[in-house]
TrEMBL record:
Domain FIST: residue ranges: 43-247
Record-linked PANTHER family: BLR0328 PROTEIN
Record domain FIST C-domain: where: 248-396
SMART domains (alphabetical): FIST (SM00897), FIST_C (SM01204)
Protein's name in the database: Histidine kinase
InterPro entries with a match to the protein in the record: FIST_C (IPR019494), FIST_domain_N (IPR013702)
Domain of life: Bacteria
Pfam families linked to this entry: FIST (PF08495), FIST_C (PF10442)
Natural source organism: Thiorhodococcus mannitoliphagus
């Protein structure tokens, strides 16, 4: 282990570990043991945040944590891979953990099931419970939810509807919300969350971090416009049927110069998102102004584009967006350094990196690892845990929003 990293970990009250092991019980128990060994022998433990590869059985993971740490609250869920300072790995057999002391126990861990029935209702229930806590203005809430409603074919829980409900329930409360939609693999076959006590499907869990923790966030981008503005003239939920009055699939073929056969052969489409620019549409390009929606499939029967989310509507002005590998890496480096500078010499206690599964080397086919600047810069200063997600949730344009094809880095410091 690098000496600087070893020194940082030794001085931190938060411990991180990552284990890759085919047996889920063994992976969880070993990850928990390694984290436990980094803390003082007499340290009182508080809770565990974990992200695990989708090949692991979640019940066996939970049993492994319990065998090593006892009846400790376990929060988190699955991803297509796990990220720490040591590695970004996506075999599906990873188990990464952050182990927290009792002094950093969450103010509350709330959960609600029923996403398969009504995402808005689940969000509203969680928001109302959060509102009832009368949280301080600077509070941070980690929000994780199961992304997959059913499969195959994949039908997704919509993060935009979950957040709409959450803000209805929050009323006048305004905590900072950071989180993700969880999925097990690139085929979008399943998902789950740990809600503090159990493994849950079709559920969301909200973790209210203690008031002594302050989180700051940076959003990594990497897409460039590949078309002029196009108007959505027909849409049904997450299915974009027409752009500028023409079949959406035909417009994509024409604009990108990609054949229908090629588009149909790729599910999801690794190089295509639809971007909606916020603010002045005529301002010079700034990827920080865009909310992008990943096209996960095409429907040849209706010439439709199927998105990961369903928050676009008739009249939305969008652009076809293509990712640029070099831009992804540059953005990750620039945003990480900027976020570290914003801490104003206050040392980070730990970092959390939520990265779109599509940005991983396994999915994108890139030769360079987009997480490298984050792992190198943050991992040298404090424990870092991340994972590859279905949807990233971060503050954008005045409220938390579900994002696609982004990396969300959160750094946490103590107020005292």
């Amino acid at each position: 282990m690098h000496a600087t990293l070893a020194s940082a970990l030794a001085s931190s009250p938060v411990a991180v570990s990552q284990v890759r092991q085919a047996d889920a019980f063994t992976a969880a128990r070993e990850a928990a043991r390694q984290a436990r060994d980094q803390l003082p022998a007499d340290a009182e433990l508080g809770w565990l945040l974990t992200f695990a590869g989708g090949q692991h059985d979640p019940a066996a993971l939970l049993a492994g944590f319990r065998a090593e740490l006892g009846d400790l609250p376990v929060v988190g869920g699955c991803g297509t891979g796990v990220i720490t300072a040591a590695a970004a790995s996506g075999t599906g057999y990873e188990c990464g953990v952050l182990l927290f002391p009792a002094s950093l126990t969450p103010t509350a861990i709330l959960s609600a099931t029923g996403l398969d029935q009504d995402e808005v209702a689940v969000g509203r229930r969680l928001g109302a419970e959060l509102c009832a806590l009368d949280l301080p203005a600077a509070s941070t809430v980690l929000l994780f939810y199961d992304s997959v409603k059913s499969a195959p074919p994949p039908v997704l829980h919509l993060g935009s509807r979950l957040l709409d409900g959450l803000y209805e329930g929050l009323a006048d409360a305004h905590p900072q919300v950071i989180g993700a939609g969880m999925l097990t693999d690139f085929d979008l076959s399943s998902g789950y969350v740990f809600d503090g006590r159990e493994v849950r499907r079709h559920a969301a869990v909200a973790v209210v971090l203690p008031p002594g923790l302050v989180g700051r966030v940076a959003i990594m981008h990497g897409c460039l416009p590949a078309s002029p503005f196009l108007e959505i003239t027909r849409i049904e939920g997450a299915r974009v049927l027409e752009l500028d009055g023409r079949p959406a699939l035909s417009v994509v073929e024409e604009r990108l110069g990609v054949s229908r056969e090629d588009l149909l052969a790729r599910h999801p489409l690794p190089a295509l998102t639809l971007g909606e620019k916020h603010g002045d549409p005529f301002a010079p390009f700034n990827d920080g102004q865009y909310v992008n929606r990943l096209v996960i499939a095409v429907d040849p029967a209706d010439d439709a584009l199927v998105l990961f989310e369903a928050d676009f509507q008739v009249g939305s002005k969008i652009q076809l967006m293509a990712y640029e590998p070099w831009r992804m890496i540059d953005s990750a480096r620039e945003q990480t350094l900027s976020l570290l500078a914003s801490l104003e010499q206050r040392p980070p206690l730990f970092g959390l990196y939520i990265d779109c599964a599509g940005r991983s080397m396994a999915f994108s086919g890139m030769d360079e690892d987009e997480t490298a600047p984050v792992r190198q810069e943050v991992g040298a200063l404090c424990p870092l845990l991340g994972f590859y997600s279905g949807v990233e949730i971060a503050p954008f344009m005045g409220r938390a929003r579900p994002l696609d094809w982004t990396g969300v880095l959160a750094l946490f410091t103590l107020t005292t």
